[in-house]
From TrEMBL, chain A:
<dbReference type="GO" id="GO:0016020">
    <property type="term" value="C:membrane"/>
</dbReference>
<dbReference type="Pfam" id="PF02754">
    <property type="entry name" value="CCG"/>
</dbReference>
<dbReference type="GO" id="GO:0046872">
    <property type="term" value="F:metal ion binding"/>
</dbReference>
<dbReference type="InterPro" id="IPR017896">
    <property type="entry name" value="4Fe4S_Fe-S-bd"/>
</dbReference>
<keyword id="KW-0677">Repeat</keyword>
<dbReference type="GO" id="GO:0004368">
    <property type="term" value="F:glycerol-3-phosphate dehydrogenase (quinone) activity"/>
</dbReference>
<dbReference type="InterPro" id="IPR004017">
    <property type="entry name" value="Cys_rich_dom"/>
</dbReference>
<dbReference type="InterPro" id="IPR009051">
    <property type="entry name" value="Helical_ferredxn"/>
</dbReference>
<dbReference type="InterPro" id="IPR017753">
    <property type="entry name" value="G3P_DH_GlpC_su"/>
</dbReference>
TrEMBL record, chain B:
<dbReference type="Pfam" id="PF01266">
    <property type="entry name" value="DAO"/>
</dbReference>
<keyword id="KW-1003">Cell membrane</keyword>
<dbReference type="GO" id="GO:0050660">
    <property type="term" value="F:flavin adenine dinucleotide binding"/>
</dbReference>
<protein>
    <recommendedName>
        <fullName>Glycerol-3-phosphate dehydrogenase</fullName>
        <ecNumber>1.1.5.3</ecNumber>
    </recommendedName>
</protein>
<feature type="domain" description="FAD dependent oxidoreductase">
    <location>
        <begin position="7"/>
        <end position="362"/>
    </location>
</feature>
<feature type="domain" description="BFD-like [2Fe-2S]-binding">
    <location>
        <begin position="438"/>
        <end position="483"/>
    </location>
</feature>
<keyword id="KW-0274">FAD</keyword>
<keyword id="KW-0560">Oxidoreductase</keyword>
<dbReference type="InterPro" id="IPR006076">
    <property type="entry name" value="FAD-dep_OxRdtase"/>
</dbReference>
């Protein structure tokens, strides 16, 4: 046992978030200075040609205008307004990785969007209220999951959806995701929390011939979706990590902030980030690494947090955050174990795999294809590098629905072409879009790893 | 007087147009001739500081007092050319405390509002100031756009009946019976608006009086009538940064020295400057070390400049003058004041006065004095109104409007256009057809370009100074061909090519001293773009008009038999 861990420490114990120094989103410091970033743009327009929204939306001026150009034009005066087109950016961050010159485009968009919402958007407008509700998915989900059956019925009840579209601008074309009967956290607590996980990990280590006190421990950032909607993904994560000898803790956490960035709700995002950073940084100090199963959550913790907020411990958390499979591929011979495994039963399928944009940004777009290449009983086909089009809350907006589906067309088509009728992706909202466009059932790579290596 | 006197003004810099406007408003007949564009001389190559007078508050209090007076006047009459940024004189630990106190005292004596702020307060206003800046004096410095100001003065003069001729060079003074009676002028492209490739011609412009407002060139005009006007041209370098590192004018608080000021100007910040006497105002060396030295020295005040992107550098020559008996060694010691040289009194040659020295900020006052002087010659008792009547564009108006809705423009683009156009915004931006953005870096739309073309003809450099198009970070990489296309329709291909060439040349010239780091990447991209998509490296047409009629007219799409077998991209229409 590592002696860094105090015996009375229970990471499941809620962290109240007290003792936090509130910080300004845009403090007068040069930490968030976008000047050097604006200097880097040489107008090549590569970002524009990579933007999925600009491709389908002629009114959207594209990332070059949205980012460096607008930033530079409005420098001269404090009361310059942000162009409202910034609300059409879906925050897919493709422009970030497209730029050959390292311009921090998504940071510029996020900053501009935050400013727009804070200063120019009517706080009583339907759009604001709708965006606020959509981006605070965690709140709705936590209420709904208290009464999952009722919620599942009510949320997809025709007349109610019609009213939602007409009054709030939430498209009635989509089905709301189902809420699980038991959340991940309920399952986790019932299972015995961190203590149970430690016992399982020790058992695995013995089986694997590793020292019982090996320093292998991770803090799981499950995010909202695997908690309320797809606890199977969370369970798979726990099972897989325990299998490789890791003790898992599930610290107190809130929304990663991804939907809030995309809607410019930076105040909300910061409040949540403070809690997340606080609990994660305590654990990082004790030798834990932070693991997310959702690529947008890992993106938020790694990149957006330090770009947008100044919170104690934020850099430390950012540099110790990993996506689950990425982490295993770094530290374990997961590919070796998978090669000698075989999958039969429910998951012995041909999968159409879509790499989420945010996975792409972290360089993870090939991991699933590479990992499962030699797994007997399954096939994984990459459906190409297009964007799924939903980008979190974007595709839920009534006025964006059509465009979202137009962006997704290429992916749908490739999915249809691929063998098999099951999809695979790391991102929960991409999964919704894949399912919506093709009717396929969508699985998470961790579920397949679980099926392959965990007996 | 029986007939209205006709006054010829030589020089289309701030001084010349200031005089032309004043005289025209007093009812005189005025013709102004300028050898290049408006602002071709020093006025187009200056720093853009609307002086509070603080810089002269210790060494030259007469100039300082004039500056603060005119500073107030220009804020009023030229609001669309001025940005009141405020300014500071900052003191570093090694700068003299005694001088700091003298500066403060000097400002008070000259009526310049000045307050001391601590280093921390200064950094709160300007976060990028060096951490060891100890304190600062705040003054009402501002930024002023010399191009817009000069164009507005010329437009106002024209409204009052003046004739303004650009690209018209004075080649001789007409002297008859020991009196100056007019000018001999060579038009580069005929009188009126500039049209490239148009035959010029020589014109004799007879005048009742001539005003020589040619700044650093004043001696040359003097030579034409054997007059000795000893202007001492002194060069200074300025470097333009891609973005604003500061939003206030930052001066270094020390007696004198090179590289001691940063002026935020539009989307950029301009670093300056140096002071070195040169022989010839048109031909002097421009050296890289001057730029390097300036960036290095100013980084002591604003450390981030060291790494920041510069987009170009340019040099200007000050038209310094001092009466022959003073004999200063160092050009920085020469007064910044201006002088009227009445050649009748001075050289027994009636009919002409030269105005030399001075600075941009006091251009209006210079115009007023010389207009008084000229009116005096003709016994005209007309009042000067230039201090009260706003310039075209600065009439009563507010920039805070909803441009997006009004003009269908994206908000920061609409906002910038309206800031540039001032009260002319409605007139220019309300157009019938689509109004796309032509210059993306500076947010200039087609309507503004067309407005400028209607003022200045086929001259794209004149369009540039009116609109700022091609003056942003890509330095014309993305927009020069678009600007040239805007000439189409009114002008034919040969003219468009020539205008386009001239603009490109001008844009490259200033980048020669900025070719490292990001601007080098930009230049490489521009070169590749222009070479590969526009044949700019080696145009097979070689400047000769292209025989467009020799090309076939392409596939006839009205014919629906579907016989065309080649798609626009060169592939088969049904292939993938
Ligand atoms: C580096 C530098 C920085 C400066 N910064 C500032 C500042 O920040 N603030 C400020 O207030 N002042 C500043 N000044 C001073 C200011 O720029 C000048 O005093 C002012 O612009 C002079 O204007 P002008 O009209 O007298 O001369 P010019 O602008 O030089 O005008 C003279 C014109 O005469 C024309 N001409 C010459 N010969 C002929 C001919 N034969 N026929 C027809 N036309 C002819 C020229 O082409 C030229 O356009 C600066 C000067 C320099 C050099
Ligand atoms: S984040 Fe995505 S949608 Fe937004 S500008 Fe960039 S590429 Fe376009
Ligand atoms: S890709 Fe990068 S350098 Fe190119 S235009 Fe976009 S932001 Fe500028």
């Amino acid at each position: 046992m590592s002696d860094a861990q105090p015996t009375d420490f229970d990471p499941v114990e809620p962290n109240t978030g007290e003792g936090f120094e509130p910080v300004e989103v845009f403090p007068e410091s040069d930490d968030f200075d976008l000047r050097p970033g604006a200097d880097s743009c040489y107008k090549c327009s590569v970002c524009d040609t990579n933007c999925p929204v600009a491709e389908v939306d002629d009114d959207f001026p594209g990332p070059k205008f949205q980012g460096p150009e607008q930033w530079r034009l409005k420098q001269t005066d404090d009361d310059y307004e942000i162009d409202d087109s910034v609300m059409s950016c879906s925050n897919c961050m493709r422009c970030d990785s497209a730029c050959p010159s390292g311009v921090p485009l998504s940071q510029m968009h996020n900053t501009a969007r935050g400013e727009y919402v804070e200063e120019q958007m009517d706080k009583l407008s339907v759009e604001y209220v709708r965006n606020r509700i959509l981006s605070n998915y965690r709140l709705s989900a936590s209420i709904a999951s208290k009464v999952p059956r009722l919620a599942n019925f009510a949320m997809n009840f025709g007349p109610a959806r019609w009213v939602m579209e007409k009054t709030m601008g939430v498209t009635s074309e989509r089905d709301f995701p189902e809420f699980a009967q038991q959340t991940f956290r309920e399952w986790w607590a019932a299972r015995g929390g961190a203590d149970a996980s430690r016992a399982n990990a020790v058992e695995s280590r013995e089986r694997r011939g590793e020292p019982a006190d090996a320093d292998k421990k991770v803090a799981y950032f499950h995010g909202c979706y695997s908690n309320y909607n797809t606890p199977d993904v969370g369970k798979a994560m726990v099972h897989v990590f325990e299998h490789f000898g890791y003790e898992v803790v599930a610290p107190e956490q809130k929304c990663s902030g991804t939907p809030m960035f995309a809607n410019g709700m930076l105040d909300d995002a910061r409040r949540h980030a403070e809690v997340n950073v606080s609990s994660m940084s305590d654990l990082v100090d004790q030798g834990y690494d932070a693991i997310a199963s959702c690529t947008s959550c890992s993106m938020a913790l790694r990149q957006e947090y330090p770009e947008l907020f100044d919170i104690d411990g934020i850099e430390k958390v950012a540099s110790n955050t990993f996506e689950a499979i990425e982490y295993l591929r770094i530290h374990e011979d997961v590919k070796g174990e998978i090669e000698s495994a075989e999958v039969s039963g429910e998951l012995a399928q041909e999968f159409a795999y879509h790499a989420p944009c945010h996975a792409r940004n972290q360089g993870l777009e090939r991991q699933a294809v590479e990992l499962f290449r030699d797994l007997d009983g399954v096939g994984v086909e990459d459906v190409g590098d297009s964007c799924s089009g939903i980008s979190g809350t974007y595709g839920w907006k009534e006025e964006k629905y059509e465009k979202s589906m137009e962006i997704g067309d290429e992916m749908f088509e490739h999915m249809e072409h691929a063998e098999g009728e099951t999809g695979m992706t790391e991102c929960p909202t991409c999964a919704m879009q894949m399912e919506h466009g093709t009717g396929y059932e969508i699985r998470h790579p961790l579920e397949l790893v679980e099926a392959a290596v965990v007996e | 007087m029986a007939s209205t006197p006709h006054i010829a003004v030589i020089g289309g810099g701030s001084t010349g147009v200031g005089i032309a406007r004043d005289l025209a408003m007093r009812g005189l007949d005025v013709t102004l001739v300028e050898q290049g564009n408006l602002t071709h001389g020093t006025t187009g190559r200056m720093h853009g500081l609307l002086h509070s007078g603080g810089r002269y508050a210790v060494s030259d209090q007469a100039s300082a007092t004039e500056c603060i007076e005119e500073n107030r006047v220009l804020r009023d009459i030229a609001s669309h050319c001025v940005e009141m940024t405020g300014g500071m004189f900052v003191k570093r630990p090694e700068d003299s405390e005694e001088y700091f106190q003298e500066k403060l005292q000097g400002c008070k004596e000259c009526g310049i509002p000045a307050d001391v702020v601590s280093g921390a307060e200064a950094r709160q206003m300007e976060p990028h100031l060096a951490k060891d800046v100890e304190k600062a004096i705040t003054v009402p410095d501002g930024a002023i756009d010399p191009f817009r100001l000069v164009v507005a003065n010329a437009a106002s003069a024209q409204e009052h009946g003046a004739r303004i001729e650009t690209h018209s060079k004075v080649t001789d003074l007409l002297v008859e019976d020991d009196e100056v009676v007019g000018l001999e002028v060579e038009h580069a492209s005929g009188p009126g608006k500039r049209v490239h490739g148009t035959e010029g011609g020589t014109e004799e412009i007879r005048a009742d009086y001539v005003v020589n407002a040619t700044g650093a060139w004043a001696g040359r005009i003097g030579d034409m009538a054997d007059l000795d006007i000893a202007v001492r041209p002194s060069k200074g370098v300025m470097t333009i940064m891609n973005i604003r590192q500061v939003d206030t004018v930052i001066n270094r608080c020390r007696p004198k020295g090179d590289a001691d000021i940063v002026v935020p100007h539009e989307t950029t910040a301009i670093l300056g400057t140096t002071d070195e006497e040169v022989e010839d105002p048109e031909d002097y060396p421009e050296e890289q070390w001057e730029v390097d030295l300036m960036i290095e020295t100013l980084s002591e005040l604003i450390p981030m400049l060291e790494e920041a992107r510069t987009i170009r550098s340019f040099w200007g020559v000050r038209p310094l003058y001092e009466p022959p008996d003073v004999g200063s060694e160092d050009p920085t010691d020469i007064t910044r004041d201006f002088f009227l040289l009445d050649h009748d009194e001075r050289d027994d040659l009636p009919g002409m006065t030269s105005i030399v020295g001075g600075k941009f900020t006091t251009y209006r006052m210079m115009g007023e004095q010389i207009s008084d002087h000229v009116c005096g010659k003709f016994g005209i008792d007309a009042e000067c109104r230039t201090a009260d009547e706003p310039l075209p564009g600065s009439e009563d108006f507010s920039v805070l409007r909803d441009y997006m809705d009004e003009f269908g423009l994206r908000s920061p683009i609409g906002r910038r256009s309206v800031e540039r156009l001032g009260s002319r915004a409605d007139e220019v931006l309300k157009t019938e057809g689509p109004n796309p953005t032509v210059c993306e870096c500076e947010g200039v739309t087609r309507a503004e370009i067309q407005d400028a073309i209607s003022q200045s003809g086929s001259d794209l450099n004149a369009v540039r100074i009116r609109t700022r198009a091609s003056m942003g970070n890509c330095q014309g990489g993305i927009c020069t061909h678009r600007m040239a296309s805007e000439l189409h329709g009114e002008y034919d291909e040969g003219i468009v090519r020539e205008a386009w060439d001239e603009l490109l040349q001008e844009r490259w010239k200033g980048q020669r001293h900025a070719l490292w780091g990001e601007q080098l990447s930009q230049a490489a991209l521009n070169y590749a773009l222009h070479a590969t998509t526009q044949n700019r490296d080696n145009d097979p047409a070689g400047g000769d008009p292209v025989d467009f009629a020799a090309f076939d007219s392409g596939v006839d799409h009205t014919d629906d038999s579907g016989t065309a077998d080649v798609a626009a991209d060169g592939g088969k229409p049904d292939g993938d």
